[in-house]
Amino acid sequence: MSIWEAAKVALESLRANKLRSFLTLLGIIIGITAIIAVISIINGLNLYIAEKVANLGSNVFVVQKFGIITSHDQWMDAVKRNKDLKLEDARAIQDRCRNCEAVGVEVHTYEDVKYGNQTVEEVGIGGITANILPLENYEVDLGRALSEFDVDHARYVAFMGADVGENLFPHTDPLGKQVRIGRTKFTIVGLGKKRGSVFGQSRDNYAKIPLSTFQKIYGSRRSVNITVKARSQQVMDEAEDEARVILRARHHLRYNAEDDFGIVSSQGINDLWKDLTEKIFVVAIFVVGISLVVGGIVIMNIMLVSVIERTREIGIRKAVGARQPDILRQFLIESVILCCAGGAIGIALAFLVSYGLSKATPLPSSFPLWAPPFAFAVCTLIGVFFGIHPARKAAHLDPIEALRAE
Amino acid sequence: MGENGNLIRTIDLWKTYEMGAEQVHALRGVTLEIGTNEYVAIMGPSGSGKSTLMNLIGCLDTPTSGEYYLNEKRVSEMDDDELAAIRNKEVGFVFQTFNLLPRATALHNVELPLIYNGTPLQERLAKAKAALEQVELADRMHHRPNELSGGQRQRVAIARALVNNPSILLADEPTGNLDSATGSEIMSLFDRLHQQGNTIIVVTHERDIVAHAHRAIHLLDGRIARDEPRIEDRG
């Protein structure tokens, strides 16, 4: 009895009882659809995060007063412990870190930006050194980026995000126009390329001004963010360590004290995100697992029915020389094929769900290519696990009794 | 077969079934020998043990005690899978109810024994077709059992029994489900197969059938009551 023969017999009996087969497979279909849909969504989110959130430039990390904080307790500790980062911290890294290629500084606040009687509220204002724009992947759409000259001379010039530009200058050229950031007038020298939004949050609602100008207006007591570019991908970790050691030394931390600052990198954001999605994944697997187990039990049930219905067939096969392993294999293959048929339908449905979600909702969803083989592997396991009992029952039937069956 | 030509040799076969607390002896010491190319009818009223004897001879079952040699092989002590292999190689069954796979074509039904001994596909098809030709059903090989008449179904079953060149052809009431015309057609097929050198054992209670055989073994209460050669009957 080859696998192909058994497959033919299995498909035959599937075809013969279409409705019953469908009902039998419902659990498996739903389980596989759900599991692949979840995988697709998490996969989509991962890609989304990698592309849109964790997209600091390559080899770049940012030192902040507060890094990524994921719990209230952590936040309370950090508030007590962490010191403001100063321009001098940035300079120290620039002077002493051998694996760092460039160090930029940015200070943040929020202000309304006005032009004439138009106002854009709560714009993210960044006081920056000139190298921040290339380091953090800001691209120029119109005009130019901020220059060293602007920063050195504390000029009142601004590089604006696309949203601000569109809202204040829907019909006119914004270059050279004067806007009010808070109460101070700035001349627009450039407009950034659109960066889109993440989870509904626009990333084009910013105005970058020279750091020196920022400090003249808002003072120099705010904590700065230090953006560091490592010399290469290979020395990312070394560069991060160097920066950490330099800052710990400057902050006089004991060897066993925790950092009083945070370091954020694309890698770090990705790791954090992966950690989160893994947890979602585990929960999803558990829930879907229940559906698959129920599906498996239904398969076992229907296989037991099938063994009883086909007792005579088993008797005939035994009479002409089928050994126990032959019968066992036939029924195992049958239950595996049954499960895999359900899996195939599940995969197709999951593909549609994934496609539909990505088209119809903002939820990103990406159907991974490894999902079908994964689903078939799962189905094969279920088929074997829940098929073994009925198959053994069939294999151990007494041929005489079996031939006598109606 | 041994030097004495004994294909089948049983020594004091007993078969006992436990029915609750009671023991039922279906066979009480059957000793018999059947040679190659014999044509034997096993007869007896129901409950005489003829089905049990047929199951033992056909290697579907093992005796409670006693010995059974088929082709000099001691079958009485074999396990299930060894018995299956013997059935596959040595025994061709023909049943009263045909016992064909309903969803398989005639050809596939005939192929079945060859599938289980691992005959390669091409050879399998060739042998199965040849067997169907032998029973004059080559033109029906792609029909399913429900598209065939009773006589044709039984001929498919006979082709299946023959396909592996077994040592014995074991038929259990082969004409029981057929009208008399078709029945005698099947019986003349058996006659022809016997003339071609096959060993045939028919279990029956029909006088007409027994007339075709060369030897009749009568069972009664699990014992051989009479064992009569009938060669002279056939002139």
Give a structural overview:
Chain A is of the alpha+beta class. Chain A is 57% helix and 18% strand. Chain A has helices spanning 3-16, 18-53, 72-81, 87-96, 132-135, 148-152, 162-168, 211-218, 236-250, 266-309, 311-319, 324-360, 371-395, 399-404, and strands at residues 60-64, 100-115, 118-128, 140-143, 157-160, 178-181, 184-192, 197-198, 201-202, 206-210, 225-230, 262-265. In chain A, a hairpin with a 2-residue loop joins strand 2 and strand 3 (118-128). Chain B has helices at residues 50-57, 80-90, 106-116, 121-134, 150-162, 180-195, 207-212, and strands spanning 6-19, 22-35, 39-43, 65-70, 73-74, 91-94, 168-172, 199-203, 215-220, 223-229. In chain B, helix 3 (106-116) packs parallel to helix 5 and helix 4 packs across helix 5. Chain B has a single domain, classed as 3-Layer(aba) Sandwich (Rossmann fold). Chains A and B meet through helix 1, helix 11, helix 12 and helix 14 of A and helix 2 and helix 3 of B.
Terminal CA distance of chain A reads 24 Å
Q: What percentage of residues of chain A falls in helices of 4 or more residues? A: 55-70%
| Strand order in the largest sheet of chain B | 6-7-8-3-9-10
Task: Report the structural category of chain B.
Answer: alpha/beta
Oligomer: heterodimer
Biggest sheet overview of chain A: 6 strands, mixed, barrel
What value does the Rg of chain A take, in angstroms? 32 Å
What is the CATH topology assignment of chain B?
Answer: Rossmann fold
- Unreliable stretches of chain A, pLDDT < 50, 5 or more residues? none
Order of helices and strands of chain B: EEEHEEHEHHHEHEHEE
Taken together, the total number of domains of chain B comes to: 1
Distance between the termini of chain B: 27 Å
Helix segment tally of chain B: 7
Q: What are the segments of chain B in which pLDDT stays under 50 over at least 5 consecutive residues?
A: none
The portion of residues assigned to helices of chain B is 25-40%
Integer average pLDDT of chain B: 90
- Helical stretch count of chain A? 14
Principal-axes geometry of chain B comes out as globular
